[in-house]
Amino acid sequence: MAAKKPNRVLGATELEAFGRELDDLRTRTVASLGQRDADYIRKVVRAVRYTGFAGRALLMVAAIGGAFVPWLLWPAAILGVIALAWSKIVENMEVGHNVIHGQYDWMRDPHLDGKTYEWDIVATSQHWRRTHNFQHHTWTNVRGMDDDIGYGLLRIFPEQKWKPFHLAQPLVAIVFAILFEWGVALQDVRLGRVFAGRMRKKQFVAKAAPVARKAARQMLKDYVLFPALAGPFFLTVLLGNVAANVIRNIWTYVVIFCGHFTADAETFPKESVRNETRGHWYLRQLRGSANIGGGRVMNFMTGNLSHQIEHHFYPDVPANRYAEMAVEVRRICEKYGQHYDTGSLPRQFGQVIWRIVRHAWPSRVRAQVPQAA
């Protein structure tokens, strides 16, 4: 693999122009939003609904029909898990994540309102708006300000302090991927502060209560009510729901980690955001993000987070526009001599695995090129 070409150091004038061109792209895109974008997201919502119903129906066929017609069990169960997992992935990534960002608030549709939408995972959308929409997207990859850097569990960058616990992180990363929705749910609960005695019991209860209620509803739906509909054959439906949720969790984990933790991704000290200009902000987002190649299918199945760079630039612009915006974003980056990190899913995730394994061991911090002159 060819070595990354060093980013050009931008002076104040170039940095201002860089930010202005990216702002202009957003302005032009937002001005063109309309019916095709509304039709798109409504079609996706319908697809999520229908495939979710089909997946659950197939699991019932597998459970009940398979008990009397044994050859039905495995085909119906496999198809049911695939359909339900597809529905959950698309609801989570293309609908939930993007709607909660307010990408469709301009439609004035109460079902697609970013301030009230609740998605189909154990994490509450309210906590996600705080930890992700505000904290992560404002302070992307700023150490001590962006909790998404390792999610408090993993050491992925050499600038993170090494602890003996990190020796286990290759295994921890696997468990985290399987239970990813729970990691997201507990992120804002701040369990580390509880264990360290830095949070009062009343504060913990206040933070944990909404998560507990949401998790209870999700578990009741997927692991009690739907399996109960199969009566004595509930186990097949229960295992099918577990499998669909695990598939969704692992896929979401892979996509998010590929968008933030590739070999070229950088972290930044708190000092870097003092008096940060718009151009500096764009530059930081660019250098802390990575895209995944793969075309339309990959774009759709990732909620268009295969264009993580564009998402970090324009989190409230409908994600179905990212692919066309990426052409212009890439041109602007090349014009100003800035690396645009993109690659296939195996390539990007391979770099993520390398980071997880490498930084499980003590490592030295390498000197970084300054953001700008």
Automatic annotation (TrEMBL):
A single GO BP: lipid metabolic process
Keyword NAD recorded: no
CDD domains xrefs: Delta6-FADS-like
GO MF annotation, one: oxidoreductase activity, acting on paired donors, with oxidation of a pair of donors resulting in the reduction of molecular oxygen to two molecules of water
UniProt keyword annotation of Transmembrane present: yes
Residue ranges crossing the lipid bilayer per the database entry: 57-86, 171-191, 223-244
Domain Fatty acid desaturase, chain residue ranges per copy: 73-342
Domain of life: Bacteria
GO cellular component: membrane
Alphabetical UniProt keywords: Membrane, Transmembrane, Transmembrane helix
Name of this chain's protein: Fatty acid desaturase domain-containing protein
Organism, as annotated: Arenimonas composti TR7-09 = DSM 18010
